[in-house]
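From the methods appendix. Each design record in this collection lists the tokenized structure first, followed by the designed amino acid sequence. Records were kept in a plain field format so they could be parsed without special tools. The example shown here is representative of the layout used throughout.

RECORD:
FOLD TOKENS (210 positions):
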């Protein structure tokens, strides 16, 4: 029987024991010439591409217009925050992969959807520049379906427990508000996209009053 995931304990970890991240001290000089120290975490998995990870915005469309343009979001437990989070599909880039190749692979693994092509890829993005050197790219993928919405089989790795949901893009912002009511944490990148899309729709409709 599946159990509810939970954090059992937390303790300090030395850099020598860490597999995925390391902690560094940066000695730097500010705009007044004063010497300062900054603590920073960095990934140990960055490959020759210079990009750590990708987040994926999949635009799922019907060739017969059977449903509105949609995207896929995922739910999973994240031990660092000790809660379930709703986010975009995402993953680390393997050595020898381009960000676009990694995005197509990760989308298929986590959601089952097979992209036909890449619509756009962002510039290099900082994920949390006050705390980490980690970076990423946002890749927008085209996922055409022959007719109705489909739920293809996922191809999850051992230890992954991911629930995927297809959501109409126009309803995404409202859906995330419902997740907040269910005590999910919403990933910042997903929230920013949804809020930006919703605001753009309101501005186009002239509906910007509080």
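DESIGN:
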């Amino acid at each position: 029987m599946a159990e509810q995931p939970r954090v059992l304990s937390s303790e300090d970890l030395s850099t020598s024991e860490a597999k995925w991240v390391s902690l560094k001290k940066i000695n730097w000089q500010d705009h007044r010439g004063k010497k300062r120290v900054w603590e920073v975490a960095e990934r140990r998995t960055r490959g020759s591409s210079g990009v750590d990870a990708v987040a994926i915005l999949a635009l799922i469309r019907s060739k017969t217009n059977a449903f509105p343009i949609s995207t896929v979001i995922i739910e999973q437990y994240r031990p660092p925050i000790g809660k379930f989070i709703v986010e975009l599909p995402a993953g680390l880039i393997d050595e020898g992969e381009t960000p676009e190749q990694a995005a197509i692979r990760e989308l298929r693994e986590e959601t089952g959807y097979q992209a036909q092509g890449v619509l756009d890829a962002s510039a290099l993005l900082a994920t949390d520049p006050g705390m980490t050197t980690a970076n990423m790219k946002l890749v927008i993928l085209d996922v055409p379906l022959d007719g109705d919405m489909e739920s293809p089989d996922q191809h999850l790795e051992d230890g992954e427990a991911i629930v995927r949901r297809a959501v109409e893009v126009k309803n995404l912002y409202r859906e995330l508000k419902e997740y907040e009511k269910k005590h999910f944490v919403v990933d910042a990148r997903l929230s920013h996209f949804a809020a930006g899309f919703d605001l753009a729709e309101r501005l186009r409709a002239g509906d910007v009053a509080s």
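APPENDIX NOTE: Residues 202 and 208 are 6 Å apart (CA to CA).
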